[in-house]
């Protein structure tokens, strides 16, 4: 307490107590603090999983009454127990209750009695299971949560230290018989593996704690160094929904920096958990593949990662209902009138020249029989006439313009009454041989930097 300055004297803190030796030692230590003794609120959950739990509840009620401690308790009724995943469900129930107790007592500190053996067991289990390197930290001594701070003040002590303290001070506690069940993985590590490691080196727990602290320090430094790079690379960001990064900037870094930066963005910006190494490798391969300017990968919990030319987009998929266009798939163009297109841009065909900023104006000379003009969506095989007498496929034009796949579906053409294509709206107009006829002006809102892109000028 003197080293870390976790709380002030009289400050309300919630202590998770199970009546096991670990939490009873923690409670006794708090009660006997000579300085900065907090206001202790004991939080206890009867999981109703063992016959002994009723006896434990009565014991803790009597203990808190005798020691003048406030007790908040709750039972997890058997009817609410799931058939599968009961450990995870019990933990969820327990921490939900802790949040309620913290809020009711205006506290922002929760203490649990995890110790050094718990840390070593967790690190070993993570190592055996595989996963990301930062999971090998095991258990943090202090962790920021949605409800405040979760503090584990006993993490540098061994289980044996706590038992010796309890025995010396004649503390009473209860043993959970399920802790001996070797069908549970943690119990196998606790009773079969850790004792052998301790026999090899009595300071084994100290080394695990040291490794955990080193890992946490390295990962913290890594995140601090990645943060300014992320700020340079990220173009736009909406929390829990969407992130857009500039690929031209991202690929300027080494593969290892790219990989770590993407993980950092996924986990710490978008809060996407459980990203496997295989998925990260697939993503890195997609980004490095210059022959594939567009691509998509599906990630857990409805997230998708999209490569779109010079953009990397990470967004949550939203099921949107299909809404039919109000104007249908084809409509007639009335002169001297503005129209809105499905891609959000505007255009019009006018009988007199329009001068306006941010608009592309293209003169057209047409015969009377070519009217009325109309707009339709492009079809495979559509071609645009070029100045040299040849034609360009509309599909190739969109590829050259680096138009994303979903925007290609919305691309519309201005055509004559006899079917000739006059323009791919927003991208490029056709070359029309000089002839006599009626002069009109195609005016388009500049949604694409068409004049700056190779192969899509009106040539």
From TrEMBL:
Entry EC number(s): 6.3.4.19
Keywords attached to this entry: ATP-binding, Cytoplasm, Ligase, Nucleotide-binding, tRNA processing
Subcellular location as annotated: Cytoplasm
UniProt catalytic activity: cytidine(34) in tRNA(Ile2) + L-lysine + ATP = lysidine(34) in tRNA(Ile2) + AMP + diphosphate + H(+)
GO molecular function per UniProt: tRNA(Ile)-lysidine synthase activity
Lineage top rank: taxon: Bacteria
Keyword Ligase annotated: yes
The keyword S-adenosyl-L-methionine belongs to this UniProt entry's keyword annotation: no
Matching Gene3D superfamilies: HUPs
First and last residue of the signal peptide: none
Domain Lysidine-tRNA(Ile) synthetase C-terminal: 373-444
PANTHER family xref list: TRNA(ILE)-LYSIDINE SYNTHASE-RELATED (PTHR43033:SF1)
Family classification: Belongs to the tRNA(Ile)-lysidine synthase family.
The name this protein goes by in its record: tRNA(Ile)-lysidine synthase
Organism annotation: Lentilactobacillus raoultii
Taxonomic lineage from the root: Bacteria, Bacillati, Bacillota, Bacilli, Lactobacillales
């Amino acid at each position: 307490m003197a080293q870390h300055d976790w709380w002030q004297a009289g400050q309300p803190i919630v202590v998770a107590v199970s009546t096991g030796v670990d939490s009873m030692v923690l409670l006794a230590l708090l009660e006997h603090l000579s300085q900065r003794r907090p206001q202790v609120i004991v939080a206890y959950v009867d999981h109703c999983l063992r016959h002994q739990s009723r006896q434990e509840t009565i014991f803790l009620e009597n203990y808190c009454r005798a020691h003048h401690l406030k007790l908040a308790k709750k039972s997890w009724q058997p009817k609410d127990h799931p058939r599968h995943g009961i450990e995870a469900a019990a933990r969820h129930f327990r921490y939900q209750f802790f949040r309620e107790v913290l809020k009711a007592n205006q506290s922002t500190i929760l203490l649990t009695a995890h110790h050094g053996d718990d840390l070593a067991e967790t690190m070993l289990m993570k190592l055996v299971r595989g996963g990301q390197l930062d999971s090998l930290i095991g258990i943090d001594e202090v962790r920021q949560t949605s409800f405040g701070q979760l503090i584990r003040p006993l993490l540098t002590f061994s289980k044996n230290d706590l038992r010796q303290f309890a025995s010396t001070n004649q503390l009473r506690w209860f043993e959970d018989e399920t802790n001996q069940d070797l069908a549970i993985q943690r119990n196998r590590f606790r009773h079969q593996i850790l004792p052998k490691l301790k026999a090899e080196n009595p300071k084994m727990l100290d080394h695990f704690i040291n490794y955990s602290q080193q890992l946490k320090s390295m990962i913290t430094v890594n995140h601090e160094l990645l943060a300014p790079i992320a700020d340079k690379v990220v173009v736009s960001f909406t929390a829990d929904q969407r992130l857009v990064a500039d690929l031209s900037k991202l690929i300027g870094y080494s593969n290892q920096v790219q990989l770590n930066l993407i993980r950092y963005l996924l986990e710490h910006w978008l809060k996407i958990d459980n990203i496997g190494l295989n998925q990260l490798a697939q993503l890195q391969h997609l980004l490095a593949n210059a022959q594939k300017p567009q691509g998509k990968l599906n990630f857990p919990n409805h997230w998708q990662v999209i490569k779109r030319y010079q953009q990397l987009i990470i967004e949550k998929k939203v099921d949107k209902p299909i809404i039919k266009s109000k104007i249908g798939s084809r409509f007639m163009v009335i002169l001297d009138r503005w129209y809105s297109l499905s891609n959000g841009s505007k255009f019009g065909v006018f009988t007199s020249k329009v001068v306006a900023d941010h608009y592309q104006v293209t003169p057209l000379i047409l015969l009377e029989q070519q009217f009325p003009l109309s707009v339709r969506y492009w079809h495979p095989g559509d071609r645009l006439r070029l100045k040299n007498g040849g034609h360009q496929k509309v599909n190739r034009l969109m590829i050259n313009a680096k138009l994303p796949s979903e925007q290609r579906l919305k691309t519309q053409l201005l055509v004559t009454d006899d079917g000739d294509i006059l323009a791919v709206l927003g991208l490029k107009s056709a070359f029309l041989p000089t002839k006599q006829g009626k002069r009109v002006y195609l005016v388009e809102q500049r949604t694409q930097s068409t004049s700056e892109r190779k192969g899509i000028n009106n040539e």
